[in-house]
Amino acid sequence: MNEILKMQRLNSTTTLFEVHAPKVARKVKAGQFVIVCIHEHAERIPLTLADYHADQGVITLVVQEIGKTTMEICTMHEGDRLVVISGPLGRPSDIELYGTVVCIGGGVGIAAIYPIARALHNAGNTVHSIIGARTKELLFWEDRMRLVSHSLAVCTDDGSYGRSGFVTLALEELLEAGPPPERVWAIGPAVMMKACAEATRGYGIPTLVSLNSIMVDGTGMCGSCRVEVGEKTRFACVDGPEFDGHEVNWELLLNRQRIYLAQEKQAVERWSDPAMRNRH
């Protein structure tokens, strides 16, 4: 159980893991996540389920190195085992036959939007997808997204590949061309999701975002993942992770994401010291 079957480097900061976790693979639905602990002294981190195959008992996790634990997990090897995989957690995406929908993935959010786009496609929707990253080197899964999309716009902030500019530019053009989609899903950095929600607000299009707030236990007991949606406190782990982007208090979310920046930097510095790395 929890054995890493395959590792694949997607780009300089992002690694794909295929893990044997049959209990999770049998139950997971698009939009859900797991809590992972890589060894008995490690912190617990939430990771979105990027793919899953119940018949093989395999789940796919895509990890971006942004902190000590995500850096550490990317030093593991095929054949290693993760101590804990708890899940599937969170409410799954509401997959129905809506008609026309838009799926947007930014950066590592491409991995999170893929199973949602696939589920919507399989449900008979016309899926228009938009993916983006800062540069061409950071893009991945363009081929997968094309297979589940009726159209796909690829954007890079620096113009090194596809369309030059943010994903919101492609979204705004799609909205202006009309007719408007029935729903929009946007997953990526908080600032990107906020911008997508603002782009659709005037059209009154339901826009779902997946909130990546600080999370510890994933069961709603610790309260660390609390967010404000519709002027009410919600917990991303049990009430989400998807919420109406038009009702999210984005400033509060962004402020909470910065709470432990100093501690996270210190943890990376300590772990990067070879003398400290082996002290488990």
Account of the 3D structure:
The mean pLDDT is 91. It is built from ten helices and 15 strands. It has helices at residues 22-27, 68-73, 109-122, 142-147, 167-177, 190-201, 236-239, 250-257, 261-272, 274-277; strands at residues 4-11, 14-20, 33-37, 45-53, 58-64, 84-89, 100-106, 126-133, 151-156, 163-164, 183-187, 207-210, 226-229, 232-235, 242-244. A seven-stranded mixed beta sheet has the order 10-9-8-7-11-12-15, sandwiched between helices. Strands 1-2-5-4-3-6 form a six-stranded antiparallel beta sheet. The protein has two domains: 4-89, Elongation Factor Tu (Ef-tu), domain 3 (Beta Barrel); 100-257, 3-Layer(aba) Sandwich (Rossmann fold). The chain is α/β, with parallel strands linked by helices. α5 (167-177) packs parallel to α6 (190-201).
